[in-house]
Amino acid sequence: MCGARRGRRFVLTPAVSAPRATEAVIRVEALTKRYGDLVAVDGISLAVERGEIFGILGPNGAGKTTTLEMIEGLRRPDGGGVVVDGLPVWPDPNDVKRRIGVQLQATALFDYQRLHEIIYIFGSCYGIHRGRDACVALLERVGLADKAEAFVDELSGGQAQRLSIALALVNDPVVTFLDEPTTGLDPRARRALWDVIGEINRDGTTVVLTTHYMEEAERLCDRVAVMDRGRIMALDVPRALITRLGAEATVRFDLSDRVPAADLCLLDGATDCRAVENGYEVVADDAQRTVVSLLELARTRGLRVAHLDIKGADLEDVFLSMTGRKLSDDEDEANASALKKRRRFGFGGGR
Ligand SMILES: Nc1ncnc2c1ncn2[C@@H]1O[C@H](COP(=O)(O)OP(=O)(O)OP(=O)(O)O)[C@@H](O)[C@H]1O
Ligand SMILES: [Mg+2]
Q1: Alpha helices, DSSP H, located in 25-180
Q2: DSSP assigned state of 26
Q3: In a domain, 349, yes or no
Q4: Which ligand number lies closest to the CA of residue 56?
Q5: Strands across the sheet with 24-35, in order?
Q6: How far is the CA of 327 from the centre of ligand 1 (A)?
Q7: Which atom of ligand 1 is nearest to the CA of 105?
Q8: Same domain (yes/no): 273, 131
C-alpha cells in the first residue's frame, strides 16, 4: 500500500503518492504534555496507517520521545487522547501495552546474560515461553542468530540496537515503536539496520520510529511527520513534502578557467549563482535546462566542466522552510546526546 519501497527496497517514494488504504492503527487527537512551564507536546493530532513505516523527524527536544511515550502508555498526557488498535490508551494503558513492542531511546540490560536467555525472559513477561530454537529464530529476524550464546557485554553498538529491536518483537506486536534506532551508528551499521526494519515491516508489523536523520526518514519511512518545538509542522509522504515545497535544485561544478559569476546567472533556468571554494553553485528552477546551457557556454568559451553535481531538494529544505533552521546543525549534538543517554543505561553504542 505504501509506495515504491515494497519490492524495491529503499527506493525513494514517487512524487505522486499512490492511493492508499486508510485503516488507522493509531489515532492521536490533540495530544498535549507539559513539564512545568514547558509545553513539550503541543496538541498534536495524527493517524498511523496499518502496515506502514511512520517516521517522526525532528531535532533534539522537539518532543519525539514524549509523543511516543504517551502513545505507548508510558507517559500520561495532560490533554488529548490516543487510540491504538481500536483501544483507548488512557486511562488504563495495560491492554495496549500487551499489543505493542517498544524500543526505548535507552535500554538497560544485564551485561552477563546470553542473548537467547534475554529473549526468553522478555517473552515470559508476556506469558510466552519460547524454547531455545524459537528464541534463536527471533534473533535471526534481526541478524543475530550467530550471537545467541553471546553476552550483551560482547555486542557492538549496531548489534545492541538489533537486540533491542528483537526485544520489541517478543510479543509479536501489532505496532513496534523504535525511538532513534540508528542514532550513533556508523553509516554501514545504520543502513544494515534499515534492512532489518524493512524486513520486520514486510513481515506485517506497523513501525513507528523517531529520527533526526533526514536520509533515514526519506528512504525508510512511508510517511513522515516533521516535528519541532512540540508541534507537527508537516506530515506526508517524504517525496510529497519535498515536491510541495517547489524547491529549486543546486547545480554545482567547476570550470577549467575562472568566469565572472554574473555570467553564470544568465544560464537558462538559473535563479541565483555564486562562486564557492571549489567552483560554482547555480540555483536552478529547471536543472536540466541549466546544465544544457552550462555545457553550451563551456563549449563556446573553450572551457572544461568538472565535478558536475546536481543536488535536488530534500527534507532538510522542507525543515528549513518550515522553521528557518537547519536540521543537520543538530545532528552532531543529537548523536552525542543519544550516545550519552544510551551509555547511562547500559548499551555501549558505537563500539
Ligand atoms: N521528564 C522531563 N521533565 C522535564 N522536561 C522534560 C522531561 N522529558 C523531556 N523534557 C523536555 O521536553 C522537551 C521534549 O523532550 P523529548 O525527550 O520528548 O524530545 P526529543 O524530540 O525526543 O529529543 P531527542 O532528539 O534529544 O531525543 C525537551 O525540551 C526536554 O528537555
Ligand atoms: Mg528522544
Answers
A1: 64-72, 94-99, 115-125, 132-141, 157-167
A2: E
A3: no
A4: 1
A5: 38-49, 24-35, 79-84, 87-88
A6: 17
A7: 27
A8: no
Q: How far is the CA of 219 from the centre of ligand 1 (A)?
A: 26
pLDDT band (50, 70, 90) for residue 346: very low
Looking at the structure, do residues 140 and 264 belong to the same domain, yes or no? no
State if residue 58 touches ligand 1 by the CB under 6 angstroms criterion.
yes
pLDDT average, residue stretch 193-205: 95
Pocket test of ligand 1: the residue of 31, 64, 104, 180 to mutate, having most ligand atoms within 8 Å of its CB, is 64
The answer, yes or no, to whether any atom of ligand 1 lies below 6 A from the CB of 64, is yes
Give me ligand 2 centre to Cα 278, in Å.
Answer: 37
pTM tops 0.70, yes or no: yes
The domain that holds 283 is classified in CATH as 3.30.70
Which atom number of ligand 1 is nearest to the Cα of residue 230? 14
For residues 171 and 94, the answer to whether their CB atoms sit within 8 Å is: no
The answer to whether residues 230 and 270 belong to one domain is no
How high is the pLDDT of residue 6? 37
Do 185 and 262 belong to one domain? no
| Shared-domain flag, residues 261 and 168 | no
Q: Are residues 203 and 131 in the same domain?
A: yes
Atom 24 (ligand 1) nearest CA? 60
The CB of 10 under 6 Å from ligand 1? The reply is no
**Looking at the predicted structure, is the pLDDT value of residue 92 above 60?**
yes
Ranges of beta strands (E only) in the chain are 24-35, 38-49, 53-57, 79-84, 87-88, 100-103, 175-179, 206-211, 223-228, 231-236, 249-255, 270-276, 279-284, 305-311
* Ligand lying closest to the C-alpha of residue 37: 1
Q: Are the CB atoms for 232 and 323 separated by under 8 Å?
A: no
Residues 151-195 have pLDDT tens digits of 999 999 889 999 999 999 999 999 999 999 998 888 888 999 999
CATH number of residue 13's parent domain: 3.40.50.300
How many angstroms separate the alpha carbon of residue 334 from the centre of ligand 2?
9
Q: How many domains does the chain have?
A: 2
pLDDT in tens, 330-342: 555 655 565 555 5
CB of residue 337 inside a 6 A radius of ligand 1: yes
With respect to residue 16, please indicate whether it lies within any of the assigned structural domains: yes
Looking at the CA of 70, name the nearest ligand: 1
- For the chain, state the CA radius of gyration: 23
The verdict on 183 and 96 lying in the same domain is yes
pLDDT of 29-64, one tens digit each? 999 999 999 999 999 999 999 999 999 999 999 999
Query: Is 322 among the domain residues?
Result: no
Domain hosting residue 91, numbered range:
3-243+337-344
Residues 193 and 282 reside in one and the same domain: no
Asked if residue 308 is part of any domain, the answer here is yes
Which ligand 1 atom is at minimum distance from the Cα of 67?
Answer: 18
